[in-house]
Design brief:
Order of helices and strands: EHEHEHEHHEHEEHEEHEEHEEHH
Low-confidence stretches: none
Number of domains: 2
Number of strands: 13
Strand content: 15-25%
Mean pLDDT: 96
CATH superfamily of the largest domain: NAD(P)-binding Rossmann-like Domain
Structural class: alpha/beta
Radius of gyration: 19 Å
CATH architecture of the largest domain: 3-Layer(aba) Sandwich
Distance between the termini: 49 Å
Largest sheet: 7 strands, parallel
CATH class of the largest domain: Alpha Beta
Helix content: 40-55%
Length: about 350
């Protein structure tokens, strides 16, 4: 029997690389990952030998802003499953590069879906939107369910509204099995250092090594977040496309541990070997012009449909994230202090 083929856009990102790991460990599928020719390969370093040996994992160079490259990739793979994870995914960066964000995320998603529609319309497609589409939510609307009004608070969030709606449009207009997820905060090893919990962990690891002064620089610490582990997130994405997938559906996915950014930082500091000397300082450059400050999900719709629930604790996620940065800092690489 022919093995199933999964196409992952953004395989070199945190989520894409963990999804590849999950598929390798739990299936016999062939994995095809789209990445740009200049994409850093750090997150898939452990897969490079298999890629070189053409053993289940294959890289295809393409760019979301180049339709021909996307079409050629989809045509080459003819995937059974598509996980569209690639994006300009940094909310703060989107304030200084809004047009790049919109082009990559909105039109890029349209290009992926159009290529799938023409090449393999029966493929099961996961479109990764974001909880940021909900933006600024009133307290009385918590926890946030799928029908909560969109109120995006950044160009990134606006782009993900477009991503979300394009996914549903292709499902309804072309009878394609396209589903959209709004994943709430998810983190763990390989998290980019532009995100709060990861920059905190990186700074703490650098402090422990004596590379920087014992001061953790922060942005807004008052925002409320519900944290999930990236490894739980990719398991949810796999279940999404394999457990009775329903065309046009959209789901909130997220963890169960809710705290402020300050409380998350306090926990990271509490497990540091330098906890007695670390101080915290607000850095104005880390503040967004506007913030989605209440991100607490109602995930009952997805849970009822699939039975999925988070398994990895907040404490383990934070420990693994800090250990990830300790390993990287110990490798004697140079890092931007950001």
């Amino acid at each position: 029997m022919t093995k199933k083929r999964a196409l992952i856009t953004g395989i070199t990102g945190m989520v894409g690389s963990h999804l590849a790991d999950f598929i390798i460990e739990n299936t016999d599928w062939e994995i095809y990952g789209i990445c740009r020719w200049r994409s850093p390969l750090d997150n898939i370093d452990h897969l490079i030998k298999d890629i070189n040996d053409k053993k289940r994992v294959h890289l295809i160079y393409a760019d979301l802003r180049d339709y021909l490259s996307i079409y050629e990739a989809v045509d080459e793979v003819k995937p059974d499953y598509v996980f569209h994870l690639a994006a300009q995914s940094y909310p703060k960066t989107s304030f200084s590069a809004p047009l790049d964000t919109l082009e990559t995320n909105v039109q890029g998603t349209a290009r992926v879906l159009e290529a799938v529609r023409k090449v393999k319309p029966e493929a099961v497609v996961h479109i990764c939107a974001s909880s940021e589409v909900f933006g600024r939510v009133a307290k009385e609307k918590l926890p946030i369910d799928e029908e909560c009004t969109f109120h995006p608070a950044s160009p990134y969030a606006i782009s993900k509204v477009g991503t979300d709606l394009i996914g549903r449009y292709y499902a309804e207009a072309y009878n394609m099995v396209v589903m959209t997820t709004r994943m709430f905060t998810h983190t763990g090893p390989r998290r980019g250092d532009v995100f709060a919990e990861s920059t905190f962990a990186k700074q703490i690891a650098m402090i422990e090594k004596g590379i920087i002064d014992p001061v953790v620089k922060t942005g807004n610490l008052d925002s409320l977040r519900t944290f999930a582990d990236v490894r739980d997130a990719v398991r949810a994405y796999f279940i999404l496309v394999t457990h009775n997938p329903k065309a046009g559906e959209y789901y909130n996915i997220g963890g169960t541990y809710t705290c402020t950014i300050k409380e998350m930082l306090d926990y990271l500091i509490s497990i540091s070997t330098a906890k007695d000397k670390i101080t915290v300082e607000t850095d104005p450059e880390r503040l967004r012009p506007i913030d989605a400050d209440l991100q607490v999900p109602d995930t009952s719709k997805f849970t009822k449909h699939t039975g999925w629930k988070p398994e990895i604790s907040f404490e383990r996620t934070m420990q693994d994230l800090l250990d990830y940065w300790r390993d990287r800092v110990s490798s004697n690489q140079n890092f931007l202090v950001r």
